[in-house]
Design a protein that fits this description.
Blueprint lengths: L6 H15 L28 E12 L5 E7 L2 E3 L1 H14 L2 H5 L2 E6 L5 H13 L5 E3 L13 H5 L1
Helix pairs in contact: 2-4
């Protein structure tokens, strides 16, 4: 017979160890965005090497009444002019192992103008962040059925 009396102590010790050494990365999203739909989605594996960029609104408009879009990198809202420098600083903080797998995940509102996305990509290129992932949602909304009159055309 095998004595298993100390097995619960061992399991709780290992559990406690993992609770202490695990780094939970939490960020609060400060911008509002609606994810675009996607058909070919995959999960990113190593979360410690991912820099998240959220592009969205805060419900504000500019002087001409156009929606203002904000760029949030991890937990900080940055100006487009500061983005390249901020990404360089983020990459400098990464370990060499994480730097090899470093990925920038862009999570943008589906109504974000393409000009903003292009400018963000240009800033990432200047920061030598070439691995980019775009976030989308799996939910596919049913398209409305065309009326019989529309089918004839």
């Amino acid at each position: 017979m095998l004595n298993t009396a100390s097995l619960p102590d061992l399991i709780f010790t290992v559990l406690f160890f993992f609770m202490i050494v695990t780094h939970m990365r939490n960020e609060s999203v400060k911008v509002e965005y609606e994810k675009p739909q996607g058909t070919e989605l995959t999960r990113l594996a190593n979360k410690s090497s991912i820099t998240n960029i959220h592009i969205g609104t805060k419900g504000e408009t500019d002087e001409e009444g156009r929606t203002k879009y904000f760029i949030q990198v991890n937990d900080k809202i940055v100006n487009l002019n500061e983005l390249s420098q901020y990404i360089k600083e983020e990459r400098a903080r990464m370990s060499p192992e994480d730097l090899e797998q470093a990925t920038v995940s862009i999570k943008a509102d589906k109504h974000t103008p393409m000009q903003i996305i292009t400018e963000v990509k240009r800033a990432l290129r200047n920061a030598k962040a070439y691995r980019i992932s775009y976030s989308g949602s799996r939910e596919m909304k049913a398209s409305p059925q065309p009326s019989p009159k529309e089918r004839e055309i």
